[in-house]
Amino acid sequence: MSEIIDRPLVLRQTTSVIGASIDVLDWDTALQRIKSWGSSRESRYICICNAHSVVTTTNDPDFYSVVKNADMATSDGAPVAWLMRKMGSHEQQRINGPDLMWKYCTEANRQNDWPAIYLYGSSEDTLGILQRKLKSEFPALKIVGAYSPPFRALSQQEESNILRDINDSAAGVVWVSLGCPKQEKWMAAHRGKINAVMIGVGAAFDYHAGTIVRAPLWMQNSGLEWLHRLCSEPRRLWKRYFVTNTIFIIKAIRQLISKN
């Protein structure tokens, strides 16, 4: 990717994807928003929305509210970007979590005025591998903390401790890897408490650490990354992809028909 050039942030523009408000933007705009908010340590959160996410907004009112009130919601998933293009956002790209995180780290490594990052989520083993990988690939990247939360609700003291650790670290960006919809609800609950931009990136930690193998580039570019994930974890993901993707297709067709 060519070097990001600082430029004024454009006004926010969104479009409806089966009822979910998704931002119309390109990679540079997304990265510049994160840099700007993170540099000011503004408490904001960003949702990375694929077909599963937007379908979940239709049957989970709390999650719908979380996505609606996000400071930015990007078009993760080829079906989401495709529908946005069909609805008039003709140049809309797929702004997915793993690539957004990697592009951010690339720019933060090139330019020392990009905010430091904090890693929240996944397992301790994965976090350890991920930090070593990022430090190797991006030696100038500032990683100021990492935390693997337990698979249970945090106690009040644990909650206070982690909030203090994140805020005291001076991180401007917190990458959150808890899975959907847990990570989105966690970020929404902590806006106003964490002085940084929170970005929910799903399996990005595992992808970049290499604990989960990501789909080949040709599958990513062909909109078939979901098929690779399904084949990798069929028991866990079959319902997400067969059921929610079918629902997405039906609702997308209805939206396109109503447009015409």
From TrEMBL:
Keyword field: Glycosyltransferase, Transferase
GO molecular function: hexosyltransferase activity
Entry superkingdom: Bacteria
InterPro entries: WecG_TagA_CpsF (IPR004629)
UniProt cross-references to CDD domains, sorted A to Z: Glyco_transf_WecG_TagA
Keyword Transferase: yes
Protein's recorded name: Glycosyltransferase
Organism: Iodobacter fluviatilis
